[in-house]
């Protein structure tokens, strides 16, 4: 089959197929070597030192680049290391427009680290294109969006953002962690750089940390940053993410199926005030979701009626684990207000809607009846 014909699920299973293993291994070998032998001066095998390039990591980088439809992929030790490498493309006095509802760690990186180095940010509701346009200044260099956003599941219209960005000659960077390339491919909608916390859906088993960049622009610069600052993904962790990706499609189908059922159940639950899930027709960004994605994912946030329910229920969950993180086969419930989004100031949290009655659920692949029974029992005081 010609390379161009392979569909997403096939690429997930087979990988990049850019380099055939000489011994015919079906599973990419783990090249657990820090350095590589030279046969003579200027006679490198193409691999010198694993910070620069490693065959296992390279296979992951090539695979994810194909899945996202981008020119080059880069694997980092964590999602934050990947985001850090992207922010380092900018210099003091550069201005970046950032989705106001986003992963708390990204907010912390911009505000508590890069602000010190003179990188300016404005937090905007990027679902409102007019607001985004009004925030563009002379020194604006990029728009950084998360869609669906974390944790309010706001949907930003990627094509509208990329058209606007192109008109002003600025970059669009998308954190695609929540949907993965199986459901959403921002580069094909005009984005320039895609970021992932590979810890989440790509790895999919809550067993390793990883970060990914796929870029259509600034490829040399990102490679330089990766080699120079060194937060690369280890050979073994690269292999774990490659193995995770093999089942990405079937995991996401099952997780989404469970999430649709749970979101409907929650919508009818008396102790639940509001449900945020892009797959519900009543969800604000539903139409944009349908237009720009091939699925709604498996992340649900919901508000309960009273704060009291939170503390009591978090002690009661049995099938669903009360733990940070998301995207894996195990269902996890988190309390964004004091966990993932604690580093966001209270006034911003309130404006966005991250209330002290909000819970975020990452739906796994368990039997959905067990998950619903667990929710029913735990939310019931
Ligand atoms: C988890 C997460 C990150 C950070 O990734 P790590 O692998 O934990 O460093 C960034 N963005 C989003 C949307 C995330 O969920």
TrEMBL record:
The protein's Enzyme Commission number: 4.4.1.8
Keyword Lyase: yes
InterPro entries: Cys/Met-Metab_PyrdxlP-dep_enz, Cys_met_metab_PP, PyrdxlP-dep_Trfase, PyrdxlP-dep_Trfase_major, PyrdxlP-dep_Trfase_small
Domain of life according to the entry: Bacteria
Coiled-coil parts of chain: none
GO molecular function: carbon-sulfur lyase activity; pyridoxal phosphate binding
Modified residues (N6-(pyridoxal phosphate)lysine): 200
Cellular compartments per GO CC: cytoplasm
Cofactor or coenzyme needed: pyridoxal 5'-phosphate
BP-aspect Gene Ontology terms: methionine biosynthetic process; transsulfuration
Protein name per Swiss-Prot or TrEMBL: Cys/Met metabolism pyridoxal-phosphate-dependent protein
Organism (species): Clostridium pasteurianum DSM 525 = ATCC 6013
Gene encoding the protein: metC4
